[in-house]
Amino acid sequence: MKSVHKWLLLLATAVIITAASFVIIFLPPDEDVPFREASLREYSATLPDFSGSRGEEADIPDRSAILNSLSDQHTSASEWGERVSGVKNRHDTEEKVIALTFDACGGPTGNGVDEELLSFLTDYGIPATLFMNYRWIEDHEDRFLELADNPLFTIENHGTAHLPLSVEGRTAWGIEGTASPEEVVDEVLINQEHIASLTGKAPSHFRSGTAYYDEQAVKIVEMAGLTAVNYDVLGDAGATYSAAQVESALLESRPGSIVLLHMNQPSSGTAEGVKQAVPQLLDAGYTFVHLGDYPLTE
Predict the structure, then answer these.
(1) Beta strand 233-234 with 257-262: parallel, antiparallel or unpaired?
(2) How confident is the model at residue 160 (pLDDT cuts 50, 70, 90)?
(3) 216 within 8 A of 167, measured Cβ to Cβ
(4) Are strands 90-91 and 296-297 parallel, antiparallel or unpaired?
(5) CA distances from 128 to 52, 78, 81, 105, 209 (A)
(6) Among 12, 61, 198, 201, which is least packed by CB within 10 angstroms?
(7) Shortest CA distance to 249 belongs to which of 232, 230, 266, 265?
(8) What distance in Å separates the CA atoms of residue 285 and residue 296, rounded to the nearest whole number?
(9) pLDDT value of position 44
């Protein structure tokens, strides 16, 4: 009997050690570990597989082909900021149309869902363009798919790690940007592939994290089959504006304006400001459109 008890004790100990080892090995990566620890492509290999049959319908340029094209090109940059050659900031029209665009940035401080805002847009039939980051989609996949299936909303690409887009590692707002053409490609394409795999449709427009670019990175965005888009109306200043400030900013819109707002900060003044401004703009004769409804211009 003692030998049986001893054997059971040894077996239980082995099971506990094995279980502990499994937990240690398969703990998910810390969300706060910066992407700079490894390339974006290496980091993406640690995330769940997002290849799916729906993505086969989308036409996405091959990463290797883009990099091969870049190998013979001069890629040092001379421009840096939000107003950079090739970045579109408004619609090229005099019609009284406005494009509301909302960023979902993801990450530890940008991972919320402003349901009050989304409900208002849905209830009042207001079209909007949603720029979605890879991390936000990963954490809200079911909600993402609901939004993607709603014809009021167009889904666009807001990058993989929400980085400023630089071929030289420039910094914006304290955030270190992509450090090479290869990282620019991955910041764009990993999320492009992700969205296409979930929806069957590849986005047509890209906005970088912080809305900063250099002109060489913009060319890479174009090689990936996308148009880089920023704004001419700063709607909520990174979801820091009060409701009154958001309302005031939106009322500065003019024909063809593109407004930059956020849908990932439910405690901000964005929803209330939008709710106050939209009826006034409708009364003034404006209609709301998607980015793809009119030609874009710088």
Answers:
(1) parallel
(2) very high
(3) yes
(4) antiparallel
(5) 26, 33, 25, 16, 19
(6) 12
(7) 232
(8) 21
(9) 54
Long-range contacts of 50-57 (CB under 8 A, 24+ apart): 50/193, 50/194, 50/197, 50/198, 51/193, 51/197, 52/197, 52/198, 54/196, 54/197, 54/198, 54/199, 54/200, 55/193, 55/196, 55/197, 55/198, 55/200, 56/200, 57/196, 57/200, 57/201
Domain ranges of the chain: 47-297
Amino acid at 187: E
30-50 mean pLDDT: 49
The two three-digit tokens of residue 44, written as one number: 């993406």
235-244 pLDDT, tens per residue? 999 999 999 9
Strand partners of residue 171: 176
DSSP letters for 200-216: S---SEE--GGG-B-HH
CATH of 47-297 among 3.20.20.370, 3.30.160.20, 3.40.50.620, 3.40.50.720:
3.20.20.370
Query: Which residues in the chain belong to E strands, given as ranges?
Result: 90-91, 97-104, 128-132, 153-157, 171-172, 175-176, 205-206, 227-228, 233-234, 257-262, 287-288, 296-297
Q: Given pLDDT bands bounded at 50, 70 and 90, which one contains residue 18?
A: very low
Q: What is the pTM of this model?
A: 0.84
Whether residue 41 is predicted with pLDDT greater than 70 in this model: the reply is: no
Beta partners for residue 158, in sequence order? none
